Amino acid sequence: MKFNQAIPHPQSVFWQEDHLVLLDQRRLPTETVYLHLTTPEEVWEAIATLAVRGAPAIGIAAVYGLYLGVRGLPDQEEIFWAELERIADFLNSARPTAVNLSWALKRVVNKAKTFKGEPVSSVKQAILNEATAIHEEDVRVCRQIGEHLLTLLQDGMGILTHCNAGGLATGAYGTALAPLYLARERGWKFKVFADETRPVLQGARLTAYELMQAGIDVTLICDNMAGAVMKQGWVQAVIVGTDRVAANGDVANKIGTYSVAVLAKAHGIPFYVAAPASSIDLETETGEQIPIEQRSPEEVVAGMGKPIAPEGVQVYNPAFDVTPAEYVTAIITEYGVIRAPYRENLKRVLNG
Ligand code: MRU
């Protein structure tokens, strides 16, 4: 998918003629830098270091990366198919928690296999076509999630979100933030509270940035202010994204989401999880089996470039946590609003 001027926020991923372009999210909001990538190694690095981040966006970047890796391969079938699998595995190793990464890579590899027996050049084209299809589909899926979420919301509500599950994290519009963009098209006004989201501040750097770019009312709060803001009656719904939903409805998302869910329950506020079907993993039975990425201590002790803790201090830095299904009011997918019992209802919706 090419650069699209109609999108109301900065576009984080696009395909430009013969290479992948990523808006470098590590440098936002102070610098707008585009990375022009031509190899799977560069794409791996961009995913691992959070230049591109957010579950759907890393899946999209990875499948373009897969095409970048195979497009120059010779026509010998044996080498081609072995390399395709190897590069897909390599890209899949960039981050462990978001299932969208392996979902997108598997989908493209499986599509390629349906072209077995045809010239390698046709398989390569099919890989690029499928990557583009995943990208374009994600934009449609996000809008559908936004439509379904809007049925749960009313004009004027206060909405709290954690991390960035917005346009920057997806093909466009985001998952949790999609209803905000759709509401804006309809003249509705929400008051959004964005948790800053330590340690690397996706809420402050990215959510506040993209909503402000779109003219949406957003107030930045530190993570430890969420309870106080809820207690004052300013929040009528919490909406977050997810990296993986287990078969029982447990939900992995950015570290700190679990605390927000517990606070929401204590204040009687609905806790909604926006999830494209590609984030639902029926093969993972419960949240306990979701692999949680551990990231560098540097993010905690010098996340903003400046040391803020004594040198050598012990650090625990999981990038995600799991919110048990009992805290989740509803999971909103492109197919509609799913409520408990999740084990039955997720399966029913996913199996059509
Ligand atoms: O570490 P990140 O920035 O990739 O974490 C992102 C999140 O936790 C998002 O909420 C999630 O991927 C959903 S994005 C639509």
TrEMBL record:
Entry function: Catalyzes the interconversion of methylthioribose-1-phosphate (MTR-1-P) into methylthioribulose-1-phosphate (MTRu-1-P).
Catalytic class of the enzyme: isomerase
Gene3D superfamilies: translation initiation factor eif-2b, domain 1, Translation initiation factor eif-2b, domain 2
Keyword check for Amino-acid biosynthesis: yes
Listed name of the protein: Methylthioribose-1-phosphate isomerase
Entry similarity comment: Belongs to the EIF-2B alpha/beta/delta subunits family. MtnA subfamily.
Keyword Isomerase: yes
Catalytic activity: 5-(methylsulfanyl)-alpha-D-ribose 1-phosphate = 5-(methylsulfanyl)-D-ribulose 1-phosphate
GO function term, MF aspect, one: S-methyl-5-thioribose-1-phosphate isomerase activity
Binding locations of substrate: R53, G54, A55, R95, Q202, N253, K254
An annotated GO BP: L-methionine salvage from methylthioadenosine
Site-annotated residues for Transition state stabilizer: C163
Entry's EC annotation: 5.3.1.23
UniProt cross-references to Pfam families, sorted A to Z: IF-2B (PF01008)
Pathway: Amino-acid biosynthesis; L-methionine biosynthesis via salvage pathway; L-methionine from S-methyl-5-thio-alpha-D-ribose 1-phosphate: step 1/6
Active site per database record: D243 (proton donor)
Listed SUPFAM superfamilies: NagB/RpiA/CoA transferase-like (SSF100950)
Keywords: Amino-acid biosynthesis, Isomerase, Methionine biosynthesis
Species this chain originates from: Lihuaxuella thermophila
